[in-house]
Amino acid sequence: MPSALETYPADMPWAVVRLKNQLYAIATQDMREIVRAPEAARVPGAPSYVRGVFDLRGRVMPVVDLRMRLGLGSVLEDTNAFCAMMQQREEDHRKWLAELQASLDQRRPFTLATDPHQCAFGKWYDGHRADNVWIAALLKKFDKPHRQIHGVAIEVERLKAEQQYTAAGSLIAGTRDGVLASMLSLFSALRELVREEQRELAVVLSHEGRLFAATVDAAQSIEKFPPGNIEALATDQCGDGLVRRHARTAKGNVILLIETGSLLAGSPVGSWS
Questions:
Q1: pLDDT, tens digit, 9 for 90 and up, residues 54-80
Q2: Contact predicate 130/146, CB 8 Å
Q3: Per the domain annotation, does 4 fall within a domain?
Q4: What is the rounded CA–CA span in Å between residue 110 and residue 99?
Q5: Domain boundary at 197, 232, 250, which?
Q6: pLDDT at 36 over 70
């Protein structure tokens, strides 16, 4: 059975945090501090959303992956998926240039994308908007070399048509050592930056004498919600009482409220703290 709704002072501020593309709020009354998400030692038999335990200044406590607890998939899974996709887009361009070389060697037309907006990376790049300013700045550096590398195919086709095969070969070799090498370096830097910037925060919580931490993507703000701005949801978001209310900010943003007590209910978390 879901636990009763938590009761908090009407003027209590809430800590607004981000998990994936949704904002959630945690009662500051239950919060103790926010730290960088620690490495946790796994505990045999723990639920999948419990990463394990860690030591915070001599106090051992469990760490709950709040994304996993809410069924959103972990940051680690998202990061690994993104890096794998970028690894594939890097390999695409290696193979693209190799195919351009093969078309020259075999004196046949080149049939892969010459428009930088039509390759898999180009289509993703045109539609992607990075929230992180450092990642966004690095992505901008792809634009020029990406356009240049695709433009090489057009020039190689022109040289082939004029039977200037040696010049075409020299252009491909120069591209491999120059523009392609620059793009490969950017792909490597992007994967490294994403892994660094996607490190989570851990909100240390205390509830009914139990101490534990919950991971979040980022801390957004501290907000007060007038009682009239907090409403019950039509359905329990998680089916176990974890998210049963939402609040609206002055700007109209919907924020889901975490019921701290339900986060612990029915799990072994409490017995470890």
A1: 988 989 999 999 998 998 888 888 899
A2: no
A3: no
A4: 8
A5: 197
A6: yes
Are both 69 and 204 inside the same structural domain?
yes
**Do 186 and 110 fall within a single domain?**
yes
Residues 234 and 156 in one domain: no
108: nearest Cα among 100, 96, 97: 100
Choose among 14, 33, 16: nearest CA to 218. Answer: 16
Query: How many whole angstroms separate alpha carbon 58 and alpha carbon 180?
Result: 50
Amino acid at 186: L
Q: What is the pTM of this model?
A: 0.70
Q: CA 84: distance to chain centroid?
A: 13
Note the helical H segments in 29-132. 66-69, 75-105, 120-127
In the chain, how many domains are there? 2
Pair 219, 119 in one domain: no
Rounded CA-CA distance 149/62 in Å is: 50
Q: Which domain holds residue 149?
A: 75-197
* pLDDT band with cut points at 50, 70 and 90 for residue 270: very low
Q: Are 172 and 100 in contact (CB under 8 A)?
A: yes
86 vs 143: CA distance, rounded Å: 15
For residue 132, being part of any structural domain is answered with yes
